[in-house]
Amino acid sequence: MIHARGLTRRFTVKRKVVEAVRGLDLDVEQGQLVAFLGPNGAGKSTSLRMLTTLLPPTSGTATVAGRDIAADPDGVRARIGYVGQSSGAGEQFRAGDELVAQGYAYGLTRREARRRAAEVMDMLDLTPLAARRPSTMSGGQRRRLDIALGLIHRPPLLFLDEPTTGLDPHTRADVWQHILRLREQYGMTLFLTTHYLEEADSMAERVVVIDHGRVIADGTAARLKGDLAGDRVTLTAHDPADTARAAATAGRVFGADRVAVENGAVRVRVPRADAALPELLRVLEGEGVRVATAETARPTLDDVFLALTGRTLREAEAEGAGAAEGTEGADAARPTTAQPAAASAAAPEGDRA
Ligand SMILES: Nc1ncnc2c1ncn2[C@@H]1O[C@H](COP(=O)(O)OP(=O)(O)OP(=O)(O)O)[C@@H](O)[C@H]1O
Ligand SMILES: [Mg+2]
């Protein structure tokens, strides 16, 4: 569904070159649900916008849904849906009309557009809201409408840029339920970005982590956590004077680079905490170190990010917060729903591309 090689995008803002995406290589199989994860300014949206033909790459190539993004952008757009980072629905049109208009924009006849609008509203539980305007909807309802707009032309591949950002936990769960259903019931391929590590961890079968424009990890969440972060054993010595000796002992058993002392506790990264803990306790006992407390923890994706970059995702977010605001010429007016070439003529309203 997606094959990208060396996709790169640079922006020049006030004579300063920003390398937003550097050499993205990516292969996504049909039916996969891939979460694209990374801090603010990492290059997620820029990658998505290149793959959806909204932004030409500086260099590199990609085929998306079987079409080349440079040679056949219309072919790509006809076969994909794109739900942008901000809402794509106009405020003053009723949801049902908006969906039908989007159908026209994709070249459906009036009847087909109506039928398809009814279908996607059903898929996303929007039927009771057909006569409502987006301005009167809740955040989750609007996001579901955005997704419906991206699906009107039955694309086999859907890109979603932060579908759940800014929603409360209950609404996030609801939007996720609808996203998962698209995959299970309709076999769609889904490629989405998120800041929420727990979401990526529990929902996506594959996680791609991007930082400073480069992919730094790619795999199942379980594998990334196992390979890169590992489980943790944290223990404290009964006598604080024994802490250093406990750390040295743990280092001899598991490797010094896996051991750290933090706030008076010895922290050890191990492949399997349940197996490592009894062994560690035995060895420490042999050394005459009395252990006061011991606990084990499974890694999170944040531990993976920390292991890869030396900083937590939250720290990375904070440092990127100021940097992610540049705009450059025509890119500022970004369409939030992928449109076929003729869409601007056919769409009833200038808000969308
Ligand atoms: N149109 C543009 N003009 C100039 N710089 C840009 C433009 N779009 C993106 N950038 C820069 O490229 C980098 C990557 O931005 P991008 O929007 O891809 O990040 P992101 O991972 O989607 O971040 P966020 O999580 O905040 O949405 C940032 O440094 C950003 O400032
Ligand atoms: Mg973004």
TrEMBL record:
InterPro entries per UniProt: AAA+_ATPase (IPR003593), ABC_transporter-like_ATP-bd (IPR003439), ABC_transporter-like_CS (IPR017871), ABC_transporter_ATP-binding (IPR050763), DrrA1/2-like_C (IPR025302), P-loop_NTPase (IPR027417)
PROSITE patterns: ABC_TRANSPORTER_1 (PS00211), ABC_TRANSPORTER_2 (PS50893)
Gene3D superfamilies on file: P-loop containing nucleotide triphosphate hydrolases
Domain of life (superkingdom): Bacteria
Biological processes, Gene Ontology terms: response to antibiotic
Disordered: annotated span: 316-353
GO molecular function annotations of the record: ATP binding; ATP hydrolysis activity
Localization annotation: Cell membrane
Major place of residence: membrane
Membrane topology: Peripheral membrane protein
Keywords tagged on the record: Antibiotic resistance, ATP-binding, Nucleotide-binding, Transport
A cellular component term, taken from the record's GO annotations: plasma membrane
Low complexity bias (residue ranges): 319-353
PANTHER family to which the protein is assigned, alphabetical: ABC TRANSPORTER ATP-BINDING PROTEIN (PTHR42711), DOXORUBICIN RESISTANCE ATP-BINDING PROTEIN DRRA (PTHR42711:SF19)
Protein name (Swiss-Prot/TrEMBL): ATP-binding cassette domain-containing protein
Organism field: Streptomonospora mangrovi
Native organism taxonomy: Bacteria, Bacillati, Actinomycetota, Actinomycetes, Streptosporangiales
